[in-house]
Amino acid sequence: GYADLPTAVNITWSSINFKTILQWQPKPSGYFYTVEIHGQTSDVKRKCILTTETECDVTDALRNVKETYTAQILSVIPAEDNFEEPPYAASEKFTPYSQTVIGKPEIKSYSQKGSKLNVVFKDPLTPYIFPNGSFQSIQDIFQHDLEYKLYYWKDQSSGKKDVTTKSRTFEVSVDSGKNYCFYVQGIIPSRRENRSGQESTVLCSSVGRSILDEYGTEVFIIIAVIAVAVITLAIVLPVVLCRRKKAKKARAVREKEPLSGV
Questions:
Q1: Would you kindly state where each structural domain of the chain is located, as residue ranges?
Q2: Which residues contact 125 (CB under 8 A, 6 or more apart)?
Q3: Which CATH number is 106-212's, of 2.40.10.340, 2.60.40.10, 3.40.630.10, 3.40.50.920?
Q4: Is the peptide bond between 26 and the residue preceding it cis, with omega within 30 degrees of 0?
Q5: How much is the pTM?
Q6: CA dihedral sign of residues 184, 186, 190, 193
Q7: Which residues of 84-99 are buried (b: 16+ CB within 10 A; e: fewer)?
Q8: What are the pLDDT tens digits along the chain (262 aa)?
Q9: Intrachain domains 9-98 and 106-212 with the same fold
Q10: The 45-51 sheet, strands edge to edge
């Protein structure tokens, strides 16, 4: 019967960019789990019905991201009659809007010209879609609650500066001719926890490292012209010298021959 069934323990919510996975223990033996998501105002949604897994993707049961949910993980034996309530364990409360982690922004492009560093990045996407089928970004959901920080520093130095934007681009003043490294991070200042998101990949500019970086194309053309000239010389010179040698030999032979008819 249900009385002896173990219930789930160590129930945790794991959520990045609103993709939310519920995890628990132990592996079931001789029974199954069914997950129920209880919202404050929404109907109970059942997920991962009669599963032997110990995790469940509950993303689509949490579409109302500002609502607070609890999960009940039922321990079930399918053959049992339905009059007996299966035992269950309840999770902590979870509110996606205030608890999902902001994932890594993606840096699309960057350039450093003179004393300006420009960085363009992309919002992380969520699993939720607009009616037209395109994915909502985290900016679409958080609106003005979300801002981005660019952290930047002179290559090989430890002095970090940062600037904030609500758009998708940064333009900062830097020392021209010096290389800078940087990364972008989403921030939700109104939160008490999980205010800072995951950091993007660190990238570095490469100005002033060599003549090639400064005058790339021109230097390449000059080198190419010199290379072609050297190769041409290497082919043409032996041919010219060889012909001159042959001509000299022929002249010498002619001069040795006695003049005919004397």
A1: 9-98, 106-212, 215-249
A2: 17, 135, 136, 137, 138
A3: 2.60.40.10
A4: yes
A5: 0.74
A6: negative
A7: eebbbbebeebebbbb
A8: 677 889 999 999 999 999 999 999 999 999 999 999 999 988 999 999 999 999 999 999 999 999 999 999 999 998 766 677 899 999 999 999 999 999 999 999 999 998 999 999 999 999 999 999 999 999 999 999 999 999 999 988 888 999 999 889 999 999 988 999 999 999 999 999 899 999 999 999 998 655 554 555 677 788 888 888 888 888 877 777 777 777 777 777 776 766 555 4
A9: yes
A10: 45-51, 32-39, 69-76, 88-90
Domain 9-98 has CATH 2.60.40.10: yes
Phi, psi of 168 (to 5 degrees): -110, 15
Q: Which two tokens stand for residue 155?
A: 């290559």
**202-237: b (≥16 Cβ within 10 Å) or e:** eeebebeeeeeeeeeeeeeeeeeeeeeeeeeeeeee
Phi/psi of residue 146, each to 5°? -105, 135
Task: List helix spans (H) across the chain.
Answer: 96-99, 138-142, 211-256
- The per-residue DSSP string of 190-242 comes to T-SSS-EEEEPPPEE---SSSHHHHHHHHHHHHHHHHHHHHHHHHHHHHHHHH
